[in-house]
Amino acid sequence: MTFYEQYGDAIEVRRAKLRKRGFALAAETNHPTSQAVWWYGDAIQCVPRSGQAVARQIARLCGDDSEVTVPWRSLADAVGVRDRAGNLRRYTERGVKALTDAGWLEVETVGSKRGAKTTFRLLPGDRSSERLGWIDDEEWFTEAA
Fold it and tell me: Burial of 16 by CB count in 10 Å (0-12 exposed, 13-18 middle, 19+ buried)?
């Protein structure tokens, strides 16, 4: 039994409530747990803000596992951030693209349209890549010319 088959009805109910109230549930603001904490801690240092928001929700949904199968719309609702045009899903897709391009996430979609099942797998990523916001000690203490 897949995640969506098991929790699909509850997801639809929560999606409708989220649309009405306009903010995330308390569970969606919880921190990731288990092994996903370490993945999240490393991944957010190497991706832009959209990737950080998506990484948090994917890590939270993964829990003790390293993969999760969840519909795109549900993931977008959990992320809960809109782009400038007001679209939840496009912002989430941009974040997933940032994570996959950086090597931190693998996405596999089986099926199409409404029957599609998307699996997100956590990957170790490249820790030697340039970190966003990372300041080296030498840069911190050198004077600007």
Answer: exposed
